[in-house]
């Protein structure tokens, strides 16, 4: 389909805002409320991390959110350089790498999208499970019926594609979120604010009440060592040997998928009224909220449940987390059910956040020539409807997966790839585009720390990905490479080997040949070093 919309530059010169492109209706508080769905991501993996890492899981979450907060300053800087783009940090990072390898840009954009689109499936799947648990016992036929479509044991034992009540109800939930998003970002942002206030309340209560009420036992943190298993597979206290550090790395790896996620606040740069100032404000304010929630909730969760409680299968899968959290604050059956309903709203908040952000990544990737052209189509409300339908179709398949933790782990392999490329893009932009206006400029020391953390994340990837299934690392990289033939067709066949003019409109020239490179071989050495760090982490891991 041919894109007949005006470019943002053309719309500005005409003095109008095109109703068939993304429109500037937001300020930083709107993006903050979208990103406020991030703390609810703790529900996705707090059980899996606790059941895998054991008593050290609160330390895992605290370290991870501090990593994410430092990294956010790099994203704030690079996003402020592109006031006319949507889609998030991967779009801005891709432009730093494109002159050093055309294939690096689409990998960054695709990996970012693939890492966050599954929030739709995982969030609505967990929400459906919470709803079913409210009304039916675990052995009720509505909870137990299942049609297995495909066995995936070659990836992980017991993994399959299936249709059951969780799939059906999850699909209803994701369609409801789609209907809201279809009406435009401003209406969705207003609803998001209401959902956020309702949904964050129980998380804050869960984090604070057990601490102040004295319902936390220090014994539940001891011995403060990673979890291990004996020869028979029974859980035992481990030690800080290489096997213990591997478990710790695996927990840090999976936690990053949740704790780094508030960078979604930069997805709305193209829709901010004042992008230069709104973007960093939204990102940093959302980060502070996440530091609070991601530090306290896992601490209270561990201190209240203890190791035996965390090893319940429902805690690992996530389906039993809401009931466990409700029990942490007491209050009886009615209060518990109210809290579970509020946690369901928290999950829908994350789904709405993900649909808004991931659809804009697809949209901008299409505008910039990385992804298929049809994804740039928007409706009369300014919503990227083609990208949203693509998200829906993709997640219909993902909802069929029987193990959401494994799906999350594969998504996070891609997230770490994107994360590395974008943290390095901070210094690469500084070298190649020193004179490009930066309404927000991160301290150089913080930018350098973010680049180092990019390598730390790759070490966690190499060491810890396969903790979540022996095929996780390989499957994640296979997914990342799937975009290459798609980009090759778009770029070389559809676009004749040239990028659209909009790709570089925020630079002095609108032609890719006018974007100079000054970094020499440093980007290639960086990629080589990154690959070596992954290999080293994989080599030293002990499972």
Automatic annotation (TrEMBL):
Keywords, comma-separated and alphabetical: Cell membrane, Membrane, Transmembrane, Transmembrane helix
Major location category of this protein: membrane
Q: Where in the cell is it found?
A: Cell membrane
| InterPro entries linked to this entry | AA/rel_permease1, APC_superfamily
| Gene Ontology cellular component terms for the protein in this record | plasma membrane
Does this UniProt record's set of keywords contain Secreted? no
Task: Tell me the superkingdom of the source.
Answer: Bacteria
Tell me where the transmembrane regions lie.
Answer: 31-53, 59-76, 113-136, 159-180, 192-212, 242-262, 282-301, 338-356, 404-423, 444-468, 474-493, 521-541
**What is this entry's stated membrane topology?**
Multi-pass membrane protein
One GO MF term:
transmembrane transporter activity
Which protein are we looking at?
Answer: Amino acid transporter
Q: Which organism is it from?
A: Hyphomicrobium facile
